[in-house]
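Give me structure tokens for this 142-residue protein.
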Amino acid sequence: MNNKYIIKATGEREEFNSQKLLSSLMRAQASREIAEKIVAQIESELKEGDTTREIYHHAFKLLEDEERPAAVRYSLRRAIMELGPTGFPFENFIAEIFRTKGFETTTDFIAQGECAEHEIDITAWNKDKLIMIEAKFHNEYG
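Here you go.
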């Protein structure tokens, strides 16, 4: 254990856990070898009180230098967070993904149920499928 404490996005202090960093890098499909190399470098340079944001930026830069496709995936969550505090840009983003796949889409569709109206965030359809999506967007780190 390195017993260094970092500051989470919520402001909470937490002991640095290299396994969390390793897991996040590997979820972005970085190779184990590269992920372990990045974790080792971060651990060696880590200072008491570093923030998770600083650690992320450092890890991202190192990953970008080693495996660019994994770095793009690693930065996806932050890019989505930058869409803003409401879910509307996120819903439009998801609708656009469906449009690029050949679907027609609408957002904020109101469907009349037997007893009540239902808001459907995204409706996507093509000749074979109808997809109704309740999109959950949480603009919080932590």
